Amino acid sequence: MAEETQAQEEIESTQTTETTTQAPTTYTQAQLDSEADKRAAKALETAKAKWQAEQAKALEDAKSEGARLAKMTEDEKTKELEKQRQAELDKREAELNRRELSTSTKSLLVDKGLPTDFAGSLVALGDAGKIKTAVENIQKTIQETVNKQVEAKLQTDSPKNGASALDGADDPFKKIMAQYKKK
């Protein structure tokens, strides 16, 4: 009985290896072009549907805003429009301040000899004073670390076996000099 199951397993494993080692499927250029066209059409269809959904949402938002404004009195409309303008101006001002802070942070980093890759992280602090303090701390820390590493690399140990002491009797330079002095 055990032999039959073992023989059956061998047949099944042989069949699975035969199916996995089939030759790869080859396609003609027309088939590849057709598949590429199908994928491109699907991507375009998806993008179009997404765009239409965004447009429909924007239209619905505009209609609801128009209906809301229509229900208001003239004074309320004026106040609402003024509030919207002020919000837009505040948004623009915040963006300009962020850009200015980013530019000044990059300039400060360049002046201190630090990589400008830190600028994005430092701008998140939001305050020029905090950024300047952080840059100075970064520069100080980097400088101290570099100095410690340089000092560690420059330190050398004295020879352990005295091999560099050239003042002995077996000093090759003294032997050569002695030969020249004899001549």
Short précis:
The chain is mainly α and 183 residues long. The protein is 78% helix and 0% strand.
Tell me what the structure shows.
The chain is mainly alpha-helical. The chain is 78% helix and 0% strand. The protein contains six helices and no strands. The protein has helices spanning 2-20, 29-71, 74-111, 119-123, 128-154, 172-182. Helix 3 packs parallel to helix 5. The longest helix is centred in the N-terminal third of the chain and has 43 residues, at 29-71. The radius of gyration is 40 Å and the shape is flat. The model has no long low-confidence stretch (mean pLDDT 83). Pfam families: DUF4355 (PF14265). This is DUF4355 domain-containing protein. Residues 1-12 have a biased composition (Acidic residues). Residues 13-31 have a biased composition (Low complexity). Residues 1-102 are annotated as: Disordered.
H/E topology pattern:
HHHHHH
Instruction: Please provide the count of β strands.
Output: 0
| C-alpha termini separation | 104 Å
Structural class based on helices, strands and sheet pairing: mainly alpha
Radius of gyration: 40 Å
Mean pLDDT across the residues is 83
Question: How much helical structure, as a percent, in the residues?
Answer: over 70%
Q: What is the subunit organization of this protein?
A: single chain
Low-confidence stretches: none
- Number of helical regions: 6
Shape: flat
Strand % is under 5%
Main sheet summary: none
